[in-house]
Amino acid sequence: MDRIEVNKKIYLIVDPFDSANNGVSAYTRIAIEKLKEFGINAIAFCKRESETLAVFRVRLAEYVKENYQLISLVEVPETLCASMYLPSEIIHIRLHGSKSVGRYYQQLKHDEVEFDLEINEINRAKYVSAPSAATFKSMELFGCKINGAVFPNPTPNFLVKKGSGKVVFLGRGEALKGLNFLPEITKQSGVRLLGDFSLFVFYLKNKKNNWSFRFGTKKQIAKNIGVGDILILPSLFETYSMVAIEAIANGASVIGWSHLGIAEWLPKSMYCNVKAWEVDQFNKEINRLLQTEKVDCEDRKNIISILNDLYVVGVAGLLSDKPVLNFIPDKNILPIPPEGKYLMPVHSKTSRLIRKLMRDPYRYFADSKYLNFLSFLFKPKSDVLSPVVDEKIKKDAVDEVEQKKDTVVESKVEIKEKIITNNSTPTLVKTTTVANVFNIKSVVDFKKSIDFGEIPSSNEKWRAMFLFSDAYLKNAEDILTQCWQHKDFLPLRQKELLYYRLTGGENEDQLQLLNKINLAQKNKLNKVSFVFIFGPMLEHLAAIRSASDSLKVILIVTQDELVKIEDRLADILIDGLIVLAGECENRIKYITKMIESDGSSVSIAIRKFIQDLGPRDIDVFVPVFGKEMYKPELIDAKSGVGIIAYVNNEVWNGRNFKEYCEFLVKNMSNLYVAESIFCTYVDFLKAPDQASMILFIEKALMNGVRIDVRF
Fold first, then answer.
1. CA spacing 20 to 30 A to 630: which of 290, 394, 547, 682?
2. For residues 440 and 501, what is the distance between their CA atoms, to the nearest angstrom?
3. What is the pLDDT of residues 457-487, one digit of tens each?
4. Half-sphere exposure at residue 493, Cβ-oriented, CA atoms within 13 angstroms
5. How many CA atoms lie within 13 A of 458 on its CB side?
6. Are 100 and 111 in contact (CB under 8 A)?
7. What domains lie within the chain, and their CATH numbers?
8. Rounded to whole angstroms, what are the CA distances from 259 to 183, 303, 332, 673?
9. At 183, is the secondary structure helix, strand, or coil?
10. Whole-angstrom Cα distance, residue 337 to residue 244?
């Protein structure tokens, strides 16, 4: 298709997620590339890493106001309502899938307030489009009949890559992705899981001999899937599926349910669709495709070219005020949600808020409607932002917000080199360092009795210690330089941070290593709250953690190191895990037990761990299981009790520790956990089922957490 002649104004595509693991972000990246190829002036407007949704909406409104004459349309996803402050005459809502639809298929109650806001933005928009008829059909589940243009999402260029002939599941560890179907549909073929830490937890709980796992993001799909591979898509619902279309572009085959949006655009030779929830048929199709190696490259190139043409024509039609209504399949009946074992446990709105709090505390409190209301009361009237893009949006108020935002961002950006301008001439200024500061003279050598040297008694609740194994000494300079840039954060300041070389004792067990830490050194460790161990030295980790009951120990390893030790991780008492999966020198992709984020340095991961696991002035109890109730003793966990469990049966049956833990969970009616404990065991509690709660109780008791059992 030739270049399209449309006006040269900006077509702004808004990404309120900006995450490597998000489908909207993947769509935005590919859409910008394809539209520019055909002469459309497309620009992405993305949310910054630590920016709150409220600040992002205001920044978007300010940008649109200042460039209004240069912008033709602003494409915004319906989720998160980023278009709230924009004038309706330039809004194009692209439906990517409402959270309410996902909650419907998980048989959860949807957030009516959130859904009403989405519908309000859809009704305000000049144009509405979707990548599939199934998307519009899904809105009818809530009594909303919406008309709009249907055209597919853009597709990356066809890339022939030899695969490994394996069955692959790629995605986040969420119930909506159909995780509970995996054990049955892959019982014969096996599966290679590629995803985030939540998926890793699912893998540890359900892994079989023919399962494997690797950390990764959607951006890494080109490296992990190719011709001969089979991508399985057991999601409960998908409006389209960027993962599937990228896999097909790489030459892989895809199997998924027939009601998913992607099925409307692809022939069965590329997308094998199975009737919803028919697990046995899904299994048969996997086995059939494993025996089929032929891939028609020319056919795939033609399909990809057609999909991209349809997408560009669809956008061009909107820009020309001539919407193109593509075909809508006659038969598009959405199935009822699956039942029984294929559903995850039901969680309340409170549980979702707790997960948000654990995922990003800064964003949680910044988005709090109560804090925003208090801010509204005490802020001068002239500074209050109006939800309309006009003169009432005060530039000085936005500048104030941005100034605070920039302060936060600068602390998260690696500043090894800065470009400054002096008399309009760019000058390269390198960060100065103290002479010989990276010559790590302090050594923790387990070949003999160890000595940590002098450790100050001040700030012991926030004191952090780094232990570098020999393999990580070459990276110590970069890591310490990154951390020292966080001058606003006490534990990572140069004068406060402790760091040592860790060596010796590689052939000894944890008890032998523990015996080499004498009482005086254990007292020194009591002045430290966080120990970060660089390298897969699990015996050393266990020994150091056992030396002090106040220590929180975080392991930092590479992707390859994790594969070698993952079987032992379940038996090690570990407070956190950082996986160094990045290939760039200064930009390291990490996945942690606590927080998931992409494209940040390892120093950001370390900082977030310390912030989440650090002491709290008020350590409130949060409801994890059962009906919520108010009791004064749940306000602050000052008694030393970390868990309050209400049980229905006063008669205990059990012969050993594990049986008592199982009995407690099976007879539990309510469970409250102190916020600090929740942060430590978030992966067991963010989506609690019986197995994860038993595991949580076992590990918490082994770590010395006190449980108050009430009848």
1. 682
2. 7
3. 888 888 999 999 988 888 788 888 888 888 8
4. 10
5. 5
6. yes
7. 10-150 (3.40.50.2000), 167-297 (3.40.50.2000), 349-412 (no CATH), 443-613 (3.40.50), 621-710 (no CATH)
8. 21, 20, 7, 40
9. helix
10. 22
